[in-house]
Design goal:
163 residues; nine-stranded antiparallel β-sheet; 1 helix
């Protein structure tokens, strides 16, 4: 699998407001991990999959500007919502197949990729404002270990050649 950015962020997603479950206003919890990156940074599919929904308005900043999101069901059945993007890559739209490592979107003005992970066992909208806490669908899961495993793969040395 591929890490969703072309580099590992220098600001840790294991701490502060970037961490999964961090407290937000109105008794809400942070539903993903924030991977800090400069605007325009390529966002890549972590695995082969199909775009479920793209692009759509996700969050309106105080400036009035909107960030966008897209949802991809990956081949193992899990769903990732890639958010805080400025725009999607050419050809990325609902129903399109994507390959692992393919550029699917670009980091927006929020200077991060907000990465949400779902088991893919439920159906319907990922946001559920009536749900206490995370305000997300019930199959939301903490993406921290998943992202850590991608990082490990990203920096693993190549296997030695048989001699």
């Amino acid at each position: 699998m591929s890490f969703p950015l072309p580099f590992y962020p220098t600001h840790d997603y294991h701490s502060s407001g970037r961490v999964f479950g961090a407290h937000r206003p109105n008794h809400r919890k942070h539903a993903g991990c924030d991977l800090l990156a400069p605007p325009g940074t390529a966002i890549m599919a972590v695995r082969k999959g199909v775009v479920l929904r793209s692009p759509y308005k996700f969050y309106q900043a105080k400036s009035g500007d909107w960030t966008m999101a897209l949802e991809v069901r990956h081949e193992a059945g899990f769903v990732v919502r890639y958010t805080e993007v400025s725009h999607v890559a050419d050809g990325i739209r609902t129903g399109v197949s994507v390959q692992e490592g393919q550029v699917i979107a670009f980091v927006g003005a929020a200077k991060m990729l907000h990465f949400e992970l779902y088991k893919g066992t439920l159906h319907g909208p990922l946001t559920d404002r009536s749900s206490a806490g995370f305000q997300r669908r019930g199959d939301l899961q903490d993406p921290t270990d998943f992202l850590d495993s991608l990082r490990t793969e990203m920096y693993s040395p190549a296997p030695a050649a048989n001699r």
